[in-house]
Amino acid sequence: MTGFFIKKAFFDGWDNLISLVTLNLGYLVVLGGVYGALELLPVSFAGGVALAVVSLALHAFYTGMVSVHVKEFAYYSRPGFSEFKAGFMKIWRHALLQLLVNLVLATLTLFIIPFYLSYGSLVTFFIAILMFWVALALAMAMMYFYPLATHMPKDRPLKTLKKSLIIVADNIGFSLFFGFYHLVNLLLTLFFATIIPGASGIMLSRQVAMKLLMFKYDYIEEHPETLKKDIPWEELLFDERENIGHRTLKGMIFPWKE
Question: What stretches of the chain show up as alpha helix (H) in DSSP?
Fold first, then answer.
């Protein structure tokens, strides 16, 4: 599945490149808010923190709407701007929980973990390590949070978070790879000045991953006796492979040469 995921995520991104770049432009507002918060902190700590929280809230809601939008790309659809605006009503409750988790992660990594590490004792070091693993588990679960929310919209946010943690534990190998994949995409995003793949491209890759994982869970639901090693991925991904077809990087850039 992993190899096909890379291929599908790449070609889905390429086929919707202009839309992804347009969506990425919206994150410039978020970056502006973060920059403003950093500039304001030396002048007014309370004002800087308030602006940072507002920026995180804007990021959570906008990312939720982007996730709803790019899900359609993973299903070979081309939604319009009206569907993007409608995404707010579909995702706002999950966005509130996403904001809370982001605040928890920021507090853990910026304040709590460094605080315990500063003491230098074995007990506080153990607590810092425990907090690190909590932060890592939450960060990995967030990779699946919005995609799972859009695939199972009737679930409450806390139930979605619980299922996201279960998916991480049930697919630990893929989740570790997926985390590394995120780091590579983040580096590419920085290299290309946030334009590509950007946050919207990363959210598309999450939707692709969730779509493929849902094939697995739908199959297990129909065949509960099946072991994970016996899941027929070739059969499950047959239609997806047909939809993408035989495509190469050369043919993508120079289609007239194939």
Answer: 2-15, 17-25, 27-40, 45-74, 81-107, 113-117, 122-151, 157-170, 172-191, 198-222, 233-236, 238-244, 249-253
Q: Is 76 left (phi over 0), alpha (psi -120 to 50) or beta?
A: left
Q: Would you say the C-alpha torsion 188, 75, 65, 175 has a positive or negative sign?
A: negative
Residue type, 243: N
Instruction: Give residue 152's domain range.
Output: 2-257
What distance in Å separates the CA atoms of residue 109 and residue 92, rounded to the nearest whole number? Answer: 25
Tens-digit pLDDT profile for residues 234-253: 999 999 999 887 776 666 66
* Residue in this structure with the two tokens 């598309």, named with its chain if needed: 204
Domain count, the chain: 1
Structure tokens at 238: 């047959």
Q: Tokens 């390590």 map to which residue? A: 129
pLDDT, tens only, 99-150: 999 999 999 999 999 999 999 899 999 999 999 999 999 999 999 999 999 9
pTM of this prediction? 0.93
Per-residue pLDDT for 183 more than 70? yes
CA atoms within 13 A on the CB side of 115: 8
Q: Please name which of 66, 71, 63, 70 lies closest in space to residue 102, comparing C-alpha atoms.
A: 63
C-alpha of 131 from chain center: 22
